[in-house]
Design a protein that fits this description.
A: 698 residues; alpha/beta; Rossmann fold; 63% helix; B: 95 residues; alpha+beta; SH3 type barrels
Chain lengths: 698, 95
Amino acid sequence: MNVTEPGAAGSARDARREGDAPLTVALAGQPNVGKSTLFARLTGASLEAGNWPGKTVERREGRATTGAGTLSVVDLPGTYSLTAGSEEERIARDHIVHGRPDVVAVVLDATALERGLYLLAEVLQLGTPVVVALNRTDLAARAGTPVDAAALSAGLGLPVVPVVARSGEGVAALAEALARVAAGERPPHPAPFELDPEAAAAVERAVALVGPHVPTPYPVGWVAHKVLEGDAEVLQLAQRWLPAAEHAALAALSAESDGAAMALAGARYAWAGRAARAATLQAGPRGLTAAERGTDRLDRIALHPVLGVALLVALSFGVYQLTLSVAGPLQDLLDGWVGAIGERAAGWAGGFGPIAADFVQNGLFASVGLLVTFLPVLAVFFALFGLLEDTGYMARAAFVLDRALSAVGLRGKSFLPMFVGAGCNVPAVYGARVIESRSARLLTILLLPLVPCSARLVVLALLVPAFFAAHAAAVSVGLIALNIAVIALLGAVLSRALFRGERQSFVMELPRYSAPSLTAVALSVWTKLRDFLRSAGTMIVVIAALVWALSAFPGALRGGEYSIEQSYLGQLGRLLEPLGAPMDMDWRLIVAVFTGFIAKEVVIATLGVLYAATSEDAIIATMQATISPATALAFLVITMLFIPCVGTVAAMKREAGARWMAFGVALLVVVSYIGGFAVYELAALAGLDQIPAAPEAR
Amino acid sequence: MRASNPNQPVPLCSVLELRRGARAVVRAYEGGDAAATRALAQRLVAMGLPIGAETEVLVRRGRGPVLLRSREARIALGQDEARCVRVEALGGAGA
């Protein structure tokens, strides 16, 4: 049976082209074949990222330059096959069928050829012209199983371009081949795809039944295969296309779909196996390659229930330490610059009156400066996370934690966004997309704001030593442990209450360990920073300015000295004071909690304004004199458990919808209040609710 | 994919019953929930474990996930999923 459909679809494609619209390429491939590295090499800095319309799956598009002009390249989600089983697969196949790219580039890993050819078999059935990009030819050669691209090309009847995406080798040739095929050049002999007689007969029956009714652009052969396999999406379409009289026949065909699906899959693998063997030159007896043995050895530790967890903890600390030590000096530098620019600008704005000057310096530049100081920490943290992920280690972390996470209604994959959350919750919420199951993703997103992020630790770092000097380390660890305990408890409760009966499945590939690709890591750092700036950035600046306004007005409008207490913000604090009374928190701390909604770092600045203190030491001294350790502890607990920042809320709305976001926010308000109150009472029992008579001399 | 003696059914067990180091051939996917089993089967087949594929158990410990090696990949699955993978154990280290 011939799978590549002849000219009809092609000429329709040509007919719709007008003028010099660039030729379109769709990049397909299985996960872990190096597709994103190849995409980065092909399109360079021309990347435009967004989402597939109406979905939360990321869509990347870029331009590739060739001798013949530019190509528009769309990176399809990495999928193992093209069933209706996941959103990614449906997006990929929809784009090929409806988006009608001029050519599909299928990326194969030369060290996992047979499996990649399985996907290729599925893609070929869709009828678009295909070019094969054979990646990692260097690794295959080193492993003693070099793949002969020419032989593969002859066997498949398709153009095959060997590439090494990591170094960029072969990428230019690939672009040229794509341009030629997109422009209309076709290979002479597309190879046939054979089925055993029984399966072939079944396919013929299916083709006879659906053939007359399948509309363009769907390929008949593909529809027939999918009907036999019991593909949910195609069956729905077929019901719509076929007249009612034929529905019974349709049902009969798909009744034996389990067996048929396995038979068709087997036929694809047989085809793939023959093609792979014909193209692979085996140097010696087939055994484990050095790379495989190396991976096995490392996994002995990384997957060990005790050593593996120890390794994970050690790596996490390492990442954290490195981030703080590298980012710290950068932050100070940026802080200084923004402050200096702010002063100049304020001086200039002074010409418009004292309010303008105050706004520019304390409203605008303070908030922009705040945003800017996030960036070094985030960039370094994400780079380190990206490096770890690119080596293949993160999959091991998910494996090792899967058992513990299933106790709280999650699976191992939820660990990945939670680790990102330790840097910043905002990109972590976007990162939850790696979780395939909708309910697991929702539960993860609900719990992510409780992961202690670096911003919260800044507040911790200031207040814990001030009130618990002797036991600072223990108290800090205790607060973080509290967050983790609340995550576990809430996870267990929510998964039973909200997602009762939903079994989460855990299926994940553990890729070979490999040296990370700096291009791929740079791309992922950029994506995460971009998500942060997009959703958090504008909001932080706008709302920080708003809070400044609330704290300055109406006093500033009347001119002269004004106290915060009389401002709108102060009035709000006074209004809510009864809520804080059980914890002995006055309006100032309540206001600080609320301004922490913008971003936790703002809490420090707000405390400074509220306590009329201009340096951190002064803040500490004033606070030590006015609040008890128990209150301080309650305040810290609330800071740790309360809404992390506007950016997180915005991200939650994007990824989970407004209702789940509202539920999540309400949940955090309740949890943080109960937590703060409980901790206060416990601390009071320990006698910490008295303000020490003589604060420590500094 | 035929048994050596066509008159004798080949004994199948779930891959979950094998110990670390055991080798087996995938023969079927069976589970209580038909739709879930089919989805799992399609996924695992595409990842490298079609009917007839040889596999080796790399990690099998307590209640944690299982790690299987297919010819070209390492695939981790939870115990519930592993239970659905019916295999024919090969000689050597086994159940």
